[in-house]
Amino acid sequence: MNKQTSDPAAMGGQISRRGLMLVLSSPSGAGKTTLSRRLLAEDPGLTMSISVTTRPKRPGERDGVDYIFVEPVDFDLMVNRRQLLEHAKVFDHYYGTPAEPVENALSAGRDVLFDIDWQGTQDLKEEMRDDLASVFILPPSTRELERRLKSRARDSDEEVARRMSKAADEISHWPEYDYVVVNHDVDVALDQVRAILTAERLKRARQAGLGDFVKRLRDGQ
Amino acid sequence: MNKQTSDPAAMGGQISRRGLMLVLSSPSGAGKTTLSRRLLAEDPGLTMSISVTTRPKRPGERDGVDYIFVEPVDFDLMVNRRQLLEHAKVFDHYYGTPAEPVENALSAGRDVLFDIDWQGTQDLKEEMRDDLASVFILPPSTRELERRLKSRARDSDEEVARRMSKAADEISHWPEYDYVVVNHDVDVALDQVRAILTAERLKRARQAGLGDFVKRLRDGQ
Lengths: 221, 221
Description:
Chain A is an alpha/beta fold. In chain A, 44% of the residues lie in helices and 19% in strands. In chain A, the strands form 2 sheets. Chain A has a 5-stranded parallel β-sheet with strand order 2-7-1-8-9, sandwiched between helices. A 4-stranded mixed β-sheet of chain A has the order 4-3-6-5.
């Protein structure tokens, strides 16, 4: 990809714009995490939304980077103070999206990536419809999905079975998404998600500074 | 760009989809023709919509390739028989889009590129809303636009003046488009238009075969 295209300052010249929320959802094992990491690594205009969770920290995870790990009582406080854009219970634990960092990023013209499930996406949509671009990542086949889940050392057989069942539930929500990408090959899928991000940045409605730019154009500048 | 991404068959695996109509509009001199030609040259899934016109053929133009050149009486016949998706008068001549080749392409999952003005875009939108993705190309400045128009040997001074005046009129319609691309650099602008085409192909609503694909997935295939 051309370097200039992924540089927000070059996207529309000096035209200011509001950031967007890029939502990636998929059953686990469909490659969403790999896609998110690669997209974030190559695109300086994109930051990850860090979720708050009550689930225990896994080995290698860093507080404030992978998740913000909190006690259930603190999570409840954030819900009551309306500091979360969405929150949900998944596998006996709570997850939520802090509102303030997202609002700050969007106002500054930076984009935010969300790695959340269909419940979170539905809630975000209700709160932030115009800022959202949602992408559902599908695995190429059930067999491939199972193979990918089994190859993860960290998941027990019981966990694999539970995730396969949850996958069927997650997949049933694909019609609620703006875009659908089938992850046959991670490089092709990455090209496709990158194109979606670039296109969404170019939407007229997001380029808040276009009116002024055109006024200057029409004035002969 | 990855070859596979521009191959419609690889876009969603074996998932059938309805083609889309990619509309590019801009004042002349903003680079729309160069962008169209390069996009068509690299993307086998995209074909150009060939307009019918009553204007005289210019040197080097080929009938049936650049335009379908017809007499005013034949143009009127096509209008009366409702064989045109849109038609308009520009600079004393008539232009129109034949409906049949477009319908055939979309049904076969092929995409069609339109190089038309705001009038044509408004009419197409009314007829084919869900099939349309519209892009407005802006020049970086009025000075640059004038420079580009003057550098075209084929346009007389009078024609340049007329086109500059028409440009201001054309530019006033930018808010009616889905996407806006400012053509500072043709390579960057091409990357951006290409990303818009890729993203539009991935829209859930265009991938008609997704329902069947997901059914097979959920059945364990």
